[in-house]
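Duplicate of #3305? Posting structure anyway:
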C-alpha cells in the first residue's frame, strides 16, 4: 500500500538545472503519494485570493515530483487524484528526473494504461474503488480503440476519428477502430486526440437520431397543416 502524507512544500521542486527560470517556487498544500505530489493548481496564497467561489480553480493535479511532469490536471476531487497517483505508482517506471527521459522510457502498452487511468480518474468510477455508480471498463475486450478529438463537441456528442483518419464523426457506427499502436502514435502527435477502449465506449452508447437523416421540418409541418383532425372525445361521460 502506497503511503499518503499530507504536506506543505515549496513547489515545483525541480533541480536547478531542470527548473524553469520563469517559474517561481510557491508554498502549496497537498499529498505525497509515492513519487507524486497531489495538489490543487494554486499556491496557498493564491487559494486565499480566489476564495470567492471560483470553483474552476479548485481542481487537483497529479505531478511527478522529480521531473515536474503533470500527469493529469483539473481532476474534480482529491480522492480521484489520489487514486490516480496510487495506480500510477504500481507501474514502477518513475525513476527518471526529466519529462523527456520519463516519456522516452514508457512503452506503448504503459502509455495506453496511463491514458486509461487518466480518463477513469477524470470521469469514470475509478475501477469501482471509490464507490461511484457509473460503470467504466478499464481494459478493451478486443484491444481496439476509438480516438476522440477532445477539442470540441457537437451538442453533448464527442467527435471521433473516422476510419483511416478521414475526418471526424459523432456516430460510433461510422467511427474508426484503431490498434493500440495507431491510437498511441496519434496521441503522442497531438495529446488532445485521446484513445478510448472500444469496449468501454460501446457499453455506454445510446440510440439517437441524426437530424441530417430526417426530412426537412418545413415539409413535415406542411404535411400536417391540412391534415383532418378527429373530433375530441368527451371524457367522463358514459
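Output from current build:
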Amino acid at each position: 500500500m502506497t503511503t499518503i502524507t499530507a504536506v506543505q512544500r515549496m513547489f515545483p521542486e525541480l533541480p536547478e538545472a531542470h527548473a524553469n527560470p520563469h517559474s517561481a517556487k510557491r508554498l502549496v498544500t497537498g499529498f505525497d503519494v509515492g513519487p507524486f505530489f497531489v495538489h490543487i493548481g494554486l499556491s496557498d496564497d493564491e487559494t486565499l485570493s480566489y476564495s470567492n467561489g471560483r470553483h474552476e480553480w479548485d481542481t487537483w493535479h497529479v505531478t511527478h515530483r522529480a521531473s515536474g511532469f503533470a500527469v493529469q490536471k483539473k481532476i474534480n476531487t482529491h480522492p480521484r487524484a489520489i487514486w490516480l497517483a496510487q495506480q500510477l505508482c504500481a507501474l514502477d517506471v518513475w525513476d527518471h528526473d526529466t519529462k523527456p527521459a520519463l516519456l522516452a522510457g514508457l512503452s506503448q502498452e504503459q502509455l495506453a494504461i496511463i491514458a486509461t487511468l487518466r480518463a477513469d480518474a477524470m470521469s469514470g468510477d475509478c475501477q469501482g474503488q471509490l464507490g461511484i455508480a457509473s460503470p467504466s471498463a478499464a481494459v478493451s475486450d478486443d484491444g481496439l480503440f476509438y480516438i476522440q478529438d477532445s477539442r470540441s463537441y457537437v451538442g453533448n456528442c464527442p467527435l471521433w476519428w473516422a476510419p483511416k483518419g478521414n475526418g471526424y464523426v459523432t456516430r460510433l457506427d461510422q467511427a474508426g477502430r484503431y490498434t493500440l499502436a495507431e491510437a498511441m502514435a496519434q496521441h503522442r502527435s497531438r495529446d488532445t486526440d485521446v484513445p478510448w477502449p472500444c469496449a468501454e465506449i460501446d457499453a455506454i452508447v445510446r440510440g439517437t437520431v441524426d437530424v441530417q437523416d430526417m426530412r426537412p421540418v418545413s415539409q413535415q409541418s406542411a404535411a400536417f397543416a391540412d391534415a383532418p383532425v378527429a373530433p375530441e372525445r368527451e371524457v367522463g361521460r358514459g
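Confirmed duplicate; merging threads. The helical segments are 44-49, 78-89, 99-104, 108-123, 180-189, 198-202, 217-225. Residues 137-210 form one domain.
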